[in-house]
Amino acid sequence: SCHASQLCNCSSMGLDFIPPGLTAKLPVLNLAHNRIQRIQSQDLQQAVSLRALLLQSNKISSIDEDSFQSLAKLELLDLSNNSLAHLSPVWFGHLFSLQHLHLQGNSYRDLGESSPFSSLRNLSSLYLGNPRFSVIRQGNFEGIELLHKLWIDGSNLSHYEQGSLKPIKEINHMIINLRNSNIFSEIVRDLLHSVTWLEVTEIKLPVERKSLVQNSTLPFRIQKLTFKEAFFTDQSISQAIVLLKEITSLKELEAINCVLEGKGIWNTEEIAKSGQSFVETIMIIKAVIQNFHLFFDLEGMQSQINQLKRLTIASSNVFMVPCKLARHFSSLLYLDFHDNLLVNNRLDETMCKGSWPSLQTLNLSQNSLKSLEQTAKYASRLTKLNNLDISQNNFVEIPDECIWPKNLKYLNLSSTQIPKVTKCIPQTLEVLDVSANNLKEFGLELPHLKELYLTRNQLKSLPGAAPIPSLVALSVRRNKLNGFSKEEFESFRRLELLDASDNNFICSCEFLSFVHGEAGIGQVLVGWPDGYVCDSPLAVRGAQVGAVHLSLMECHRALVVSLICVLVFLVILLLVALGYKYHMVWYLRMTWAWLQAKRKPKRAPPKDVCYDAFVSYSENDSEWVENTMVRELEQACPPFRLCLHKRDFVPGKWIVDNIIDSIEKSHKTLFVLSEHFVRSEWCKYELDFSHFRLFDENNDAAILVLLEPIQSEAIPKRFCKLRKIMNTKTYLEWPAGEEQQQVFWENLKGALKS
């Protein structure tokens, strides 16, 4: 249960006793919500560094007198909601550092005959009382001089000895639950010089005749008096107004969740005779007035309200203020009527000419106003008004022109269901709130506007900066913004705060580049970085904008595609160059010819064979072929019929088909090889197609004739089968001497006949 910081949380563990083994380093021990019944001397003896001890909501009924003796550093002790039947001064005798003591919710009926707190010189807050607590005696608070907060549950307090609370010289805030109204005035008299803010709950205010300041001397300290869940009648409230005037220091009155049984028939004559009220602020929240529609107009109270500066009547069914009464609020600066029943046709009476002459701030939010034009017109009668809140009214429509107070600086039109903004909005404004109105755009020219709130609308972009040049703060939270550019951001030259959180940001490269590159953007963007989350792309949805970094491909798609296209083009260009250098085209064309030849019969029928040989030779050797070889063979007896491409190819026919047809119609194929054949065009590409058909059949139809000596290694590698044949088969060489030439011709003729 103990963390590394030595904070031990042993709450709600069903413990019946304080666990042993507590160390001297322990600063906080939480034993709340267990079943501990007794605190013994040795239980906390070692916990000398303890600063907070939480023992609330146990069943403690017994504490040994020296149980807290070693806790000199203890600052917080909570013993609330236990079963202590009495309080012993000895318990707290050594708690010299104690600042906060909670003793409420036990079963003691009093605090004893003397003060249990006499040694607690540093006490700051004290919580006392329970439903059985019934007696407060003189001397119970001796030793306490200053408290920040004093809370007493005196719901059944029946006896209070006058002067019991006087030893406390200063109490900033005292809260007392008090149902016995007879004790109220006695407590107030004791607190006049000590308490600053007195809060009384559940009291039924009595019709008190006795002065609250009897035998008391000025100056008084009490400045604020609050009633919560109290009950008033017309008589008691009339008398209370008179008596409270005697407390000249009292500046503020509050009534929260109180009930007034009556119709406002107050004793105005007696109230007027009692003199001027010193109260400057009155706040009434959730007042329950049965038959409030029958409530009188408080005529005769005019003399009591002319010094009032701040008035709040909220959630109390106010539907009108009589004009005669409104004109007497001569000093009122702040008026809050939010969450009431004000309507436009009664507003003419409430804000009649001459009413609320000094009013600067008016809150009419959450009422039943329907016409913005009429509301503005009636508000224009308040000549000094500069702050107007009419939010959460159902205006629905907004006119093109309106009449407003000339000095209006702040206007709240949020949640009024206006569909757009028009020139009805006054140009004098410095602060404008049009949040939650489903606005799709904002283009008003407001030269003095410093703060603009457009939260919860339908805006898809930031409003233009030119019409609002003085803008310092802008809120576009929870709109439909997808992002904003550097230009948009920098166009607001005076902007110090921008709240664009909770939008569906498209984390584009431009947006992310701006966000990451803008120095100090976290100081301008409200809610940064938690409130700025990517909605798309899908891969980064839900991630914080500041943490997203897109890849080069995602950010520069067009550039990357262009580079890829250029690379592909260069690769193709390289392949073309390589193909040209290494005769790739030749290989492709030969492959195509081979495939074409494959689909044809291996050999033409005998009746179609009309040549003895097809001659393949280089153009540079054509003189020898045509003048020597052809003459020798075709004039022989019997003559040989040779197929020459120059002479026998069919004009207009594709050369590949000519070659393949000629080879198929010839018994043999005669190759005339020479250096020209190897080094130049190598018998032209067209004639080379014949190699596929010839060598694919693996027959002896090839006859090689060498005009001059040539090594097989000199033949290009692409003629791999020709190289193989030269290495494995014999061939005829053209001799230089005439005698050998005759033998050559005989051998050649013999080869052609075979």
UniProtKB/TrEMBL annotation:
Gene3D superfamilies assigned: Ribonuclease Inhibitor, Toll/interleukin-1 receptor homology (TIR) domain
GO biological process, one term: toll-like receptor signaling pathway
Transmembrane segments: 558-580
S-adenosyl-L-methionine found in the keyword field: no
Membrane topology: Single-pass type I membrane protein
Protein's cellular compartments: Membrane
One Gene Ontology MF term: transmembrane signaling receptor activity
This protein's UniProt keywords: Disulfide bond, Glycoprotein, Immunity, Inflammatory response, Innate immunity, Leucine-rich repeat, Membrane, NAD, Receptor, Repeat, Signal, Transmembrane, Transmembrane helix
Disulfide bonds: 2-8, 323-352, 402-424
Location of the TIR domain: 609-752
InterPro entries xrefs: Cys-rich_flank_reg_C, EF_Hand_1_Ca_BS, Leu-rich_rpt, Leu-rich_rpt_typical-subtyp, LRR_dom_sf, TIR_dom, Toll-like_receptor, Toll_tir_struct_dom_sf
Family designation: Belongs to the Toll-like receptor family.
Oligomeric form and interacting partners: Binds MYD88 (via TIR domain).
Stated name of the protein: TLR21 protein
Upper lineage: Eukaryota, Metazoa, Chordata, Craniata, Vertebrata
